[in-house]
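ping. complex inputs:
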Amino acid sequence: MSKLIRMDHTGHSTVAEWTADDPAAVEAAVQAFRAELSRGYLAMVTAGPGQAEQVRELPLNADLVILRLPIVGG
Amino acid sequence: MAAIGEVLPEAEALYWRPRVDAARLRHRGRLWTLNLAFHVVPFLAAAALLMWAQPLALPVALASLAHAWVIPELYAQRGANVLRPRPRKADGPEQRSVGLLGDLVDHEARELHARTGLVLEPGRLGAWIVGEAGAVLLPGRRGRAYCFCIKVDAAHPGAGELPSGDRIAHLLLALRSDEQGFATVANLSFAGARWRLRRRMRSEMRPALDAAPGRYA
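pong. complex structure:
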């Protein structure tokens, strides 16, 4: 089961869960993913130890996709 | 996977800033030292001149020396402040956020975070100590420490409500996706001696600085 989570005031919230062989869950996850990106979130997946990648389309084969907010210099 | 590429979008937005690399970092470090010297040397010179001209001016000379001492300390305090923890949220969100952060790092980093509240992350530019609202870069086993102020953009709703683990995870994920971009977006708060920074860090955080030499990529 793959998960799309958003870091928020609760620690993190699960936005969507899907398996690649469940088209309805995939479609719901894709819609949820796009909605979060349109709210300004950035989607990240881990790409090996110590590495992460930003994605703009939901990677269906990823175990975990994390939504984060933009960062700025303080 | 539809990866966007290596450049952090936040860094792309700052098109006027030159992208930070090792050479540029060293250059900024040297400029920082030069700037500090311009602030400190006049006070040292004034103290020496006063004592040479009139030994009775000792109190004034001592005051001048105090200024020369306190200026680098204030800069170091500014650097140490980037790692200062922010006010905690409720226990539940804090624990959930730390749990997620723990999933992103290895056992050694988890253990260090539990002790210090900081995450040590090896990078190409050096070892990074990541806090809730900033990060310290240690490019080699010795030499300058670079303190960067960088945080979740408060302009976004909910940014101020993030628990500590999430604040660190935001910075960690950005750092891992584009280290140079991360250093480009961040604002440099201090570049100077590690011992000076260490002295200004909270005692419970110092083990992170001490552990850094063993964590280079």
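Chain B has a mean pLDDT of 93.
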